[in-house]
Amino acid sequence: MLTRSQSFPTRMPIPRTREKVADKTKYSLIFTAQTPETKRVNKQICFLVETDEGNEWWSIDEFVDGEEFTDSVVCDWVNEKNETATKFPKVRRRCLMCNSFSNHGLTICGRCKFMGRNKYIYG
Ligand SMILES: [Zn+2]
């Protein structure tokens, strides 16, 4: 069975210290029914983008610069997830940044919060 993970190449996660590829490359997020196409690749949330070289899954890390999101669409998407998590805190959900379960009513786990990732998730 061909799953979606095999239908597009997955780029290796880019280290945070390296200059963001997203800044240099022209890309556009691909939408399905008005929300960006996302899925977990290597256990992290990824967004489907269209680049000059074809469609790729970019991890959420690539849209983060310091304590901000570089893409307003990604930022809005995260805000929406945050709202849902606040509204339904009892639902077990995975952390947006890793594969752990998130804290009650949050979209990130305790470890990611400790690492300061709440600064941009809840910026
Ligand atoms: Zn996490």
What does this entry look like structurally?
The protein has 123 residues and is of the alpha+beta class. The chain has one domain (22-121). The protein is 27% helix and 24% strand. Strands 1, 4, 5 and 6 form a 4-stranded antiparallel sheet that branches. Residues 15-20 have low confidence and may be disordered. Bound molecules: zinc ion (ZN).
Helices, strands, pairings?
Elements: H1 4-7, H2 21-24, E1 27-29, E2 31-32, E3 35-36, E4 38-41, E5 44-51, E6 54-59, E7 64-65, E8 68-69, H3 72-87, H4 110-114, H5 118-121
Antiparallel strand pairs: 1-5, 2-3, 4-5, 5-6, 7-8
The structure holds zinc ion.
Residues 95, 97-98, 100, 108-109, 111-112 line the site of zinc ion.
Record keyword descriptors for this entry.
alpha+beta; two-stranded antiparallel sheet; 4-stranded antiparallel sheet; binds zinc ion; 27% helix; 123 residues
Brief digest:
The chain is α+β, with helices and mostly antiparallel strands. The protein has helices spanning 4-7, 21-24, 72-87, 110-114, 118-121, and strands at 27-29, 31-32, 35-36, 38-41, 44-51, 54-59, 64-65, 68-69. It is built from 5 helices and 8 strands; from the N terminus they run H-H-E-E-E-E-E-E-E-E-H-H-H.
